């Protein structure tokens, strides 16, 4: 009676095949871990360079640097408050203008636009997002500013001069905080629109169909079934635009007027944290002036982090059908 013998090579062969698989998994996990850690290392290196460069200014001016409104390189009297004010105001103007337009455009492209228009318009928006900021700055300097000066600003100055936000004469060719906010709004609009469109596309069609089945109009479907489901994602798109607005440099430098003063009127020149670094770092003649510009860069990083943390906390406080808890 013959007996069937089991070959001992099969388990050994399976073990040999499993060993490279485990090695590949460990290698893959290690590479992804190193990639993730590189982001933190890069941030720490940037923070170290800024802190090291700003050490002289921090030891000389202390916390008063954040509240001082004077900027005079001749007397070494420096303060960052006008630049913080300009950065926050221009970013706020940009968001107020760009976010509603971006969401409206995303809704049109997602739910309302005919198929023959949807793809061409989407391609145009994506191409606008790729235009360099210096090109937007040149367009704003030679096209947008003259038009704003000759028409909207002149009319506002003539008929609404009693309102503090637009009071005072128009200086220069229309370079002011409002112009900087408008040009930044135009720059972030394609980015916020693209992200908002992808978020609205991710809303399940079942949401829309259920609303239509209950007799809702197109506007009610958009408001109840789409926007309420995607509102946290749309807030995230606005935060992404805010990050771009806070750090915008070249275009703002060309149209903001470059005046280190805090003015109540939006039609007066101003300055931002990023633009003052770009405008003066190459001309810094003393160690203290260079250190002050490093400290302004550090302030810009801190302002960006604080604003984004506040925005993310606001997003987490919003609850809805499509919300995903972190």
Description:
With 326 residues, the chain is mainly α. It has a single domain, classed as MetI-like fold. Helix content is 74%, strand content 1%. The protein contains eleven helices and two strands; from the N terminus they run ααββααααααααα. A two-stranded antiparallel ribbon has the order 1-2. The longest helix is centred in the first third of the chain and has 53 residues, at 9-61. It is globular, with a radius of gyration of 27 Å. The N and C termini lie far apart (67 Å). Residues 320-326 have low confidence and may be disordered.
Q: Main traits of this protein?
A:
11 helices; disordered C terminus; MetI-like fold; 326 residues; 74% helix; single chain; mainly alpha
Beta strand count: 2
What kind of assembly state do the chains in view correspond to? single chain
Which class in CATH terms? Answer: Mainly Alpha
User: What is the 3D shape?
Assistant: globular
Outline of the structure:
With 326 residues, the protein is mainly α. It is 74% helix and 1% strand. It has one domain: Orthogonal Bundle (MetI-like fold), CATH 1.10.3720.10.
What's the topology here?
Blueprint: H1 9-61, H2 64-67, E1 71-72, E2 77-78, H3 81-112, H4 115-129, H5 133-159, H6 177-201, H7 205-213, H8 218-247, H9 250-255, H10 273-280, H11 287-317
Antiparallel strand pairs: 1-2
Helix pairs in contact: 1-11, 3-6, 3-8, 4-6, 6-8, 7-8, 8-11, 10-11
